[in-house]
Write the C-alpha cells for this entry.
Amino acid sequence: MGVAKLYSEKGLEVLKLQVSEDSSPRVQAILHENGAGSVQLSDPFRRGQEPSYQKRFERVKSFLEDLGYLGHPGPACAKFWFANGLGRVIVYPIESLILSVHKRVKASKTTSWQRNSDQLAFLLPTYGSRGAISAATRMTYGNAFARAAFRGGGPFILKDSKDVTTQALKRLGYLDEWNTDEYEAMLCFVNSTHNKRALRKMDLLPEPSDSSLDVKDKLRTAFLSCAQSGQWQKPAAVAGQMKRIVDILKNTGLLETKETSGEYCSGYSQDEISQAIKDYAREQQLPPCKTFNCLAWRILGHIQPEAPTRRGTVEFRK
C-alpha cells in the first residue's frame, strides 16, 4: 500500500512476486460505534481489485493530515471515524477501512469534521504466530496475520486518561484475576516479540533506568500514537505455557512422571505443580515473580536464552 511506489520514486526497481496460493485475508475486524470490537470470517478480500485505490488512498491521507490525523493510516482512519460518530466500520483489512473513509467523506455535505485531539487510543490485538501456516489454515483465514487478528478478538478504542495504560493491559489480557501486578504485566508486555519491535521503532522501549511510572507513561504515549499500526500482541495462553512448564518440571525431576490421560496437568494437583515451579525458580535463581505470566516468561526464557524472540530482554525498575 504505497510502499512499492515509494521505492520506485527513489529509483529502485520493484518486482511484483506472483503468489502461487491465494493469501487474501478471509477475516474482518470490526470497530463498533461504542468503541468495542469484534471479528468474523468473511469472503476473501482481494487486495488490488480496486483500480483507483492508490488515488483514493492519497486523497484520504491528505484529508486526514489536514485534520491532524498524522501517521499510520490504520489508527488515523479509525480515530477519525470514531471521533466523528460514523458508526460501525471494518478496520481490517486496512484497505477496506481506507475505502470506507473515502466513500463517507466524498458522500458527505458537511465540512465540519472533528479534528484529532490526541485523546484516543486505537488497538488491534493480535494473538499467536505470524509465521508459516498450513493449507487448511490458509483456507480458513487467508494468511498468518489474518489468523492472528481473528484470534486477537477484535479492535477497540480507549479514551485517554491517567489509567489508559492499565485499561489497555487489561483489555489485552496482561492484567486479569490471576495476573494483578502492574509492573510484571508491563514487563511481559514490552518483552512480547511484536510489542518490543513496535516500541523500539517508536523510540519508546523502556530503559533499565526507567521506573514503572516512566514505563507506564511511555506505553500511554505508544497507545495514543498513530506512529504505528495499533497492532499489539496479546500474552500466550496459560494452557500452552503450562504444558511446556510441566514438561520442564518432569524432565528436571521436580515433578514425578505419572501416567496421564493426555491432559498436561492430569494426575497432578495444583499444589504439586505450584511447589515444583517454586523449587525450579529457586534452584535456577530466577528473579521472584508474583504472577503466572511473569513466572512463565522467566522460566521459558531461562531454558531458551538464545532463541531469537528472547534476545535483548527489556528490564526496568519497579
